[in-house]
Amino acid sequence: MFRPATAASLASLILAAPLAAQTMTGEDAAAMLYAPKTAEVVITEGALPEDQANMLAMVAKDQPYYAAIAISPDEGLMSEATMAAANHHTVEAASAIALAQCNANRKGATDCVIVATVRPEGWEARPLQLSSSATEDFVANQGAALALSAATGAWGIGPSPDDAVTACAAKQEAATDCTVAIAE
């Protein structure tokens, strides 16, 4: 599904960054999570010509949520600076990574901008958000503890909270912020 976004609505997405404020039970978490693999693409209004926006929406719809795509305005969509970050726990985290990678690769003078985001279909801010893959893992391992890294998108599942944190940290070397989000 393709939905245009205004700059104001994109800003509200970036400011609404809920993760697990505290550890919750699996039952409480299950009630907050979206179905994995059902996503919608939100294109930033006016960021791209209509033909490029439509093309990007077609490609982005296959990215696992939460995702963001950043471009260098000076170089356009079809440049080496264009970056996507997908399968994070929030749009904000994906946006931060896509922007950082784009800015590191841009040759133009203007800072990169987010031109599209991917989020669960029917998205609304909730106290717990998990990536599409972490949601699938949680559903397949009901009763297990789950830890996540807000910075990297990593997650881990284990029989205990400590095991979940260890599994999360083992997924990516940069995942030094793994915290328990779900535990019985």
The stretches of 5 or more residues where confidence is low (pLDDT under 50) are: 1-20
- Overall SS class: alpha+beta
Q: If strands are numbered along the chain, what order do they take across the biggest sheet?
A: 1-2-5-3-4
What is the number of helical segments per DSSP (H or I, 4+ residues)? 6
Work out the radius of gyration: 17 Å
Average pLDDT number = 87
- Care to count the β-strands? 8
Number of domains: 1
Q: Please state roughly what percent of the residues sit in beta strands, choosing from under 5%, 5-15%, 15-25%, 25-35%, 35-45% or over 45%.
A: 15-25%
Protein traits:
184 residues, alpha+beta, 5-stranded mixed β-sheet, 3-stranded antiparallel β-sheet, 6 helices, 8 strands, 21% strand, disordered N terminus
